[in-house]
Structure formats: structure tokens, C-alpha cells
Amino acid sequence: MIDLAVYNRDGQEVDSLKVDESTFGSSVRYPLLKQAIVMYHANKRLGTAATKGRSMGVGSGRKLFRQKGTGYARVGNRRTGKRVGGGVTFAKVARDFRKRMPKKQRRLARNSAILAKLLSNNVIVVDDLNFEKPHTSDFMDILSNLKILSKDSCLVTISDYDDNLYKSAKNIPKVSVMPAVELNAGDICNHRKMLITKDAFLSLLSTEGAGEN
Question: How far is 141 from 145, CA to CA, in rounded Å?
Fold first, then answer.
């Protein structure tokens, strides 16, 4: 069992949660976690290198003159790679670097990432993160009260989309906000700290508990 403290916005402990490691897979699956992180970075990569081939060039596809009897070297059409303005021979095409993983493997990798954060004491649970209006300085004060340093990257996880919270955090470097349903191993491992609301954490526990039955 992992004892997890619940803090308020002022950094005071107001509650506690007991988390069974078996809810998130009992142990960290490092090979699966590595596979998920590789997929995460590969899917962010854009293949942009491309050149025009013969089919993309401008000009007629008709042979310029007959093969023999003209006294000139034989040539093809105007779009051949041997002529100025023609297409590139063996032209490059934009490459797709995307990788795929089955849904169950992605979920297990996400759980391993959460468990790794729990075991390293990098998960902070807060009871409430509601804002009446966007206010960046107020959100920075909350991070300071919870002892999340400015040099630490932090993934803020909430139960549902909150526009005021997103606007309050978007100008803070190294801080990202994400609903619990969109969590993935790549984003979790890409941040040092994980700040999660109590409601979002309980929803994760209930979802994983229901999935095991």
C-alpha cells in the first residue's frame, strides 16, 4: 500500500489516500514503458523532406523528338531529370514516422508510468484547482505552496476540461494541463512532477478497478 497525502491550495495536508500497487499493475513494466515512450516521440516527428518527381513537374509528357535520325542525343519528355526544370530522379517523399501500440498495451504503459511516479514520490494530490477566472500568479502561488519548484516540469491532471485553469497555466514554462482521460505514458514520463486533483485520481482508481474485474 502507498499512503498518499491530499493537500489544499495552501499546501496543508487535509486528507490521505491509500493506493494499492496492484491497481496500477503491481510493478513497473520498463520494456513496455520504453516502447510507449518511443512511440510518443515518433508520433511527434514530422517527415517534411520532399522533392518534385517527374510526375509533379510542369510540361508535356510527349517525347520531344524522335529517337533516331535527328543527329541529336536521344531525349525523353520535357519533365525528365536530365533537363533543367525537370523532376528529380528518385525523388524524396515525406516519410511517416508514426508507430502504433494496441490499446491494452497503451493503458498498461500509462499505469506503469503512474506507478513509477508514485514510487518515486513525484505525485502530488490536491483537493481543488477551481478558478473563478484565469489568474496565472494565483496558480504559481499554488505550485509554490505545494513545493513544486519553477525548474521542475509538471503535468497537471484534472477530471474534466477547465478553461480557466488552462488559461492560468499556459504561460508558465514546463507546466502542462491535461484531463485524466487523455493521460498517456509519454506525457507522464516527460514531466518530473505530476499534480493531480483528488477527483481525477479517484476516477483513475475507479476506472482501473473496474477494468480488473
Answer: 6
Write out pLDDT tens, residues 98-122.
999 999 999 999 999 999 999 999 9
Percent of the chain scoring above 90 in pLDDT: 55
Closest C-alpha to 177, from 136, 119, 121: 136
DSSP tag of 118: H
* Cβ–Cβ < 8 Å for 1, 18: yes
Query: What's the pTM value of the predicted model, to 2 decimals?
Result: 0.79
Q: How far apart are CA 143 and CA 139, in angstroms?
A: 6
- d(C-alpha 76, C-alpha 19), whole Å: 73
80 and 91 Cβ atoms separated by less than 8 Å:
no
2-29+102-212 folds as Ribosomal Protein L4; Chain: A; (3.40.1370)
DSSP class of residue 11 equals S
Rg (Cα) of the chain, in Å, rounded? 27
Name 65's Cβ contacts closer than 8 Å, sequence gap at least 6.
72, 75
